[in-house]
Model the fold of this input.
Amino acid sequence: MFVEVVNHAGGSIPGIAAEAHALMLLRRARQQDAAIEATPEGGARITWSRPANGGAVAIRSIDLTPAAAPESLDATVLPYLAIVATGDAWLEGGPAGPAIHTFMNSVSPGATGRLLARGLVAEYGAHRKVRLTLAGGLGLVAAAHYAEAVGAAARCTCGHVDERGDQRAARLAARAHVREQAARFVDRLAPAFVTALTAAAR
Done:
C-alpha cells in the first residue's frame, strides 16, 4: 500500500494506492516515457510534462510513498531484501516465529517480522512463498543507485562515473542515471512477480 500524491500547478491531491495500482502507474509511465525515480524509503516519483497555455510547459508528478513505514531503508533491512531478491524464498515456522529461507540463506524470525510489518516482502501462494513487494524492490534500486555530482562528475554507489564539463551538467547526468535505473527496474519486473501481485489484488 502506498500514499499517492498527484502534484500539479493547482496544488496536490492525496490518496491511497494499492500495490497493483502503483505498479500500473509505473508501467504506464514507461509506456508514456515519463521519468521515474526510486526513493530511499521504497517509493517512487513519476514526473512528466504537458503543454500549457501560452506555449509554456507544465510539470506534473505523482509521489508514491510506502504507507506502512515511510522512512529510508537502511542496513537493518537492505541485506535481507537482497537475500529474498536472489531467488526462491519461503516461510518456515519455528519456536521463535516464522523465518524466511532460501536455498543458500535464511533471515532470522525477528528480521522476517520487520520485513513483513513494513510491507517490504509478502507471502503468496499455497506453499508460503515469499516475494519482494514493489516497495522492497524500489528500495533496493534506490540504495544501489544513489548518484550525485562530485565536482564535474556524476558518481553513483553502483560505481558508475560520468565525467561532465561542470557541476550543473554532472547533476543532470546523476539524475538521468538514477532515472534510467528505475526505468530498467520497471521494465525487468518478472512476469511471475506481476502475476503474483495482480493475483493478490483480486
Summary: The chain has a mean pLDDT of 87. Residues 167-187 form the longest helix (21 residues). The chain has six helices and twelve strands.
